[in-house]
Amino acid sequence: MTMNRRKKLIIAIIIVSLIGVAAVIASTFFAGPSLDLGDKNILVLASDKNEQPGGGLDMAFMVHLENGTLKNYTPIYPGGMTHPTKGALGNLKGPMYLHDSLWDGPQKGMQYAKEIVEANTGMHADAVVIVYDVGLDAIIDSIRPFKVDGVETNLTATDIIRENDAYQGYGGDRSIVKGNMSRSDAVLVLVKALSDAAKDPNKKSTMIKTSLDEYSKGNIVMTPEGSFVRLLSTKGFESIV
User: Fold this and answer.
1) Span 123-163, pLDDT tens digits
2) Which residue of 72, 79, 129, 200 sits 20 to 30 Å from the alpha carbon of 112, by its own alpha carbon?
3) Strands 127-132 and 39-48, how do they pair?
4) How far is it, in rounded angstroms, from Cα 80 to Cα 161?
């Protein structure tokens, strides 16, 4: 897969998150820091909402923008990354891991995730988006029959990723591992399928409506809200894909 193609796919995560929620947060069009000027980074968090309180963080991407235009991205697998100062939340022991950073809810969790990623990678996030699996499942269910690489599937978002994930570094029973991809590439398989589905105007309209509903339910979350809408209102989708 070429880098140009990968860039187009990963930005689709942000598009899926934002395309339906712009109207909901229109009142904050010019609130928050601008993402359309200079070098900016958006941290995209993919989370299993029901894995633990606040959701288990399974994958992340740092998307780099230059004057509102996508330049590159870095996949961030949360395994092993810990907070520089804070201990584990809830009934967990030891340091706070990136995987568990959403334990106290999305607002605190997005800040914790930013701090963990910056401490471990040196990359600073100017904005953060959480896309919960239940939100993606609702979007997928709204446009079934849903195809992945041209083949119809009834799998959930999480299971589509698991089918392709090689679980690199996994120390458990290797016989249950089906995939041969990295976690980031496995996520991109799902993103490509969503992007392909959105080429159908009717399905795209349904996805927008469902995204609005999922945003209202808290299954798609972003901070700061107004910065994203300002980016889209000034640059448009075309400039960042």
Assistant:
1) 999 888 898 999 889 999 999 999 999 999 999 988 999 89
2) 72
3) parallel
4) 20
How much of the chain is helix, strand and coil, in % rounded to 5?
45, 25, 35
137 in the Ramachandran plot: left (φ > 0), alpha (ψ -120 to 50) or beta?
A: alpha
pTM: 0.80
List the chain domain ranges.
5-232
CB atoms within 10 A of CB 176: 9
Residue closest to 76 by CA, chosen among 49, 22, 116: 116
| CA distance linking residue 34 with residue 195, whole number of Å | 26
Token pair of 1 as six digits: 């897969």
**Which CATH number does 5-232 carry?**
3.40.630
